[in-house]
Amino acid sequence: MPTLLVLNGPNLNMLGLRQPEVYGRETLADVETLCRGTGAELELSIEFQQTNHEGQMIDWIHQARGRVAGIVINPGAWTHTSVAIHDALIAAEVPVIEVHISNVHRREAFRHHSYVSLVATAVLAGFGTHGYALAIRHFAHLQRTAQGDLP
Ligand code: DQA
């Protein structure tokens, strides 16, 4: 069974408490349950992680290389700041799907640029936590159709 790594960046441990008008009331534990359920349905093994430490995130991305079939990542604020995570994702050499709970394009200008989108196969923003399930479904679709990166 292929493994899909679902990574969450800083402050996402505060989901449900933090700005519920932006991110909703569901907790990260709810998101994990959703991801595991979706993975089980699609016969994908899900690894689910969250960290507030950029070096830890980079280590997990490196360890994904040659080990997992893909990465779903909500990089949180590192989306807009981290060349290091961008570089790590390239080094991992696995398909990457970027997820944002909120529609970052409807928010402050500093959220409009993503270093991660440059290396992502697909980007979901504004679907709420359902975006994680959609990302996992899309990943399964890519696997089934053996479809590579689209320009
Ligand atoms: C976020 C959007 C980011 O701009 C923000 O820093 C987050 C969460 C989202 O899921 O909508 O922490 O990635």
UniProtKB/TrEMBL annotation:
One Gene Ontology molecular-function label: 3-dehydroquinate dehydratase activity
InterPro entries: DHquinase_II (IPR001874), DHquinase_II_CS (IPR018509), DHquinase_II_sf (IPR036441)
Sites marked Transition state stabilizer: R18
Keyword rRNA processing: no
Gene Ontology process terms (BP): amino acid biosynthetic process; aromatic amino acid family biosynthetic process; chorismate biosynthetic process; quinate catabolic process
Active site: Y23, H100
Binding site for substrate: N74, H80, D87, I101, S102, R111
Pathway noted in the entry: Metabolic intermediate biosynthesis; chorismate biosynthesis; chorismate from D-erythrose 4-phosphate and phosphoenolpyruvate: step 3/7
Catalytic activity: 3-dehydroquinate = 3-dehydroshikimate + H2O
RNA-binding keyword on record: no
UniProt keyword annotations, A-Z: Amino-acid biosynthesis, Aromatic amino acid biosynthesis, Lyase
Entry superkingdom: Bacteria
Annotated PANTHER family: CATABOLIC 3-DEHYDROQUINASE (PTHR21272:SF3)
NCBIfam families: aroQ, PRK05395.1-2, PRK05395.1-3, PRK05395.1-4
Subunit: Homododecamer.
UniProt record similarity statement: Belongs to the type-II 3-dehydroquinase family.
Protein name (database record): 3-dehydroquinate dehydratase
The species this protein was found in: Pseudomonas brassicae
